[in-house]
Amino acid sequence: MGRDVTRRRLLGAGATIGLGSIAGCSGDGDAGTATETADPTTRATTARTTEETTTEDEEPVVADGSGLLPAAYVVTKEDGEIRAYDGQTLAVAFSGEAGAEDGRVLQATFDALADAPTEGGRVFIRRGEYTPDRQLDVASSYTEVRSEFAKLTFQDHPRDDGESQTDFAIEARDGPIEHVTIQGLVLDANKDERSTRTRTADVRADVSHVTFRDCIVFGGRSVDGDGGYGIGEDDDADYVTIDNCVVRDSDRHGYHTSAPHLRIVNSTFLNNARETGDVFDLAATDAVVANNHFEGNGHGIKIDDSDRAGGNIVVTGNVFVDNYLPDVASGQIEFTDTTVESVQISDNTFVLPDVAASETSAHVLFDSDESLGSVHIRNNHFEGGGPQTLTWFRETGRRIRTLVVEHNTFERIPDDVGLLASAERLLVRDNLFACSGGSGTLEIKECSTGVVSGNVSYDASIDVRAELVVERNHEF
Fold first, then answer.
1. Which pLDDT does position 284 carry in this prediction?
2. Which of 64, 97, 414, 476 has the fewest C-beta atoms lying within 10 Å of its C-beta?
């Protein structure tokens, strides 16, 4: 009997390599993590010493510190159980029946980080499918939930706000929390099996410096057209980063933003907002939207109304493909009742099919009753579209302080290029306009001052109806 106990303790002490692989962090040790000994003879000597000195009455411990993991907890599924191992002792801290108790064990693990003497830490969730039947909350600062694509498939569960079922929330309970990273998770809202609208992930109030990295988030469900978020966000959240994620198949918003400071980079947004809403709404924020791919969404990006003053938005290096609805006026980028201070739209590629639509399907759509600051549209490629495919004011009388459209290429435009209007200062220069429908027009009117110069048009024309400087334009 004594020898069996000793063997178990020996296995606990020698589990560094095995559980280190489970943790996915063997090459990513944190400060304070002991290094492994490369010499197998040394490891064997250490193991023998442990076996000789351990007695039945002692608690199972790691003999020399080499069993510490670069994670506070490691969650696995094995032998019909879900288990959370303590990264310090390698003991099982929480366990339950696989599947039926996935939600309870995961939540207990997250709560342990919030209750620890030193708040936060890393939880590694080993790859597998987990089926939480409850909302999961991360509620501690300096926390990382990390995986190599463990899939969390959420089931119906009670709603905590009386409206939507939120599945995975970052939430401040006893005061603000900050610096939380969610990396490498697959969050499945399990749309077909849900009874009410859902937010697949949510960033709650008083939470800041949150990053979703390398995640796949999909299936936000809408029952009445007024829900269905991939990633939601409450007021008073701030400094949110979406990096190298895939957000897809959510009915209303891919990402419902509220934070004043956003960074959305290197990500893919597919098949969101097919009923209503938008991929995301930037409002009057300080935001960088760079190097993303947007395809097949019903609406693209909106720059919308906000109570905040100012806002400086950079949209650069992105690809926009087929983000439109044929029976609703939409833009791959749309300005809607916004007072944003400045927007830079540069070095993007915009592609639409030849849309035979009853409403405008534009690449960049101005549809605002408010006065904007400066909008610079520079070095982009635009191709295809529906009626008024470039930029469009539904009515005149609104004002843009400065509008610059320069060094862009517009090709295979099937109808009129569009309408630019109501700018206090306008610069349209060095663009190429090529229409495929025989003859298309770019109409410019109701602008106070400006220059239209150096543009080249094929089967297209520029109709200037304002007292502007018009020179060196060429039509073929």
1. 73
2. 476
